[in-house]
Amino acid sequence: MPKRVMGSLRHLKRHAAPAWWPIPRKEYTWTVKPSPGPHPIDRCIPLLIIVRDILKYAKTAREARRLIAEGHFKVDGRVRKDYKFPVGLMDVLEVVDTEEYYRIVPHPVKFLTLHKIDKEEASFKLCRIENKTVVTGGHIQLNLHDGRNHLVRVNNPLNPEEDVYRTYDVVKIAVPKQEILDHIKCEEGVLAITIGGKNVGRVGRITRIEQFFKRRDAVVTLKSDKGKEFRTNLKYVFPIGQDEPLISLPEEVFS
Question: CB burial class (10 A; 0-12, 13-18, 19+) of residue 44?
Fold first, then answer.
């Protein structure tokens, strides 16, 4: 897991930025600090850095800020004009003028990377359920990993048949409408990708979940397509499909 970034509320020095950000460390002193939003600073990339340093649509920060302010980029189907906007895990980035689409996915070396996808796949994203609560009327509120809250309405609060969700399950939602299209349970037999720890970016099928104390600290054993087993904490496991992954992934994650 990357080192947590601390410091000034508004400014961030380059040497203190997450090590996996693709920026030169000694050329300049300062870099962009992400705005407070759906992802923590150590698990996101500011939109400006994506535009300038990854996609190379601008040579300078001023050029990148102008392109962003003109509304040329969408995140999860919505135009984002804040150059500090944090783009993180499973977010869908759209370049409006060129009709290019990218998804932010875990990577074994880069931690998070942009993976190019087609227009059909850009119409949805996967969100992990981090917490769930009961709200007024007995309805269920799902708190997702990207800061979204989804309300599941139940007909009978005493017997909520609609509540089939559990923490660390994953829902497939439409963007930007936020309708639930599918549900992947976090259980043995499903495909998952690791989003943290030393095995970040690796894909495997869950073969065993061993819970000793808190569920988030359960030890999960996964098996890759090549037959290699690896273990990680449940909090680093992100289900992506039953028989086949619902999203496309870089070839590196299967190596």
Answer: buried
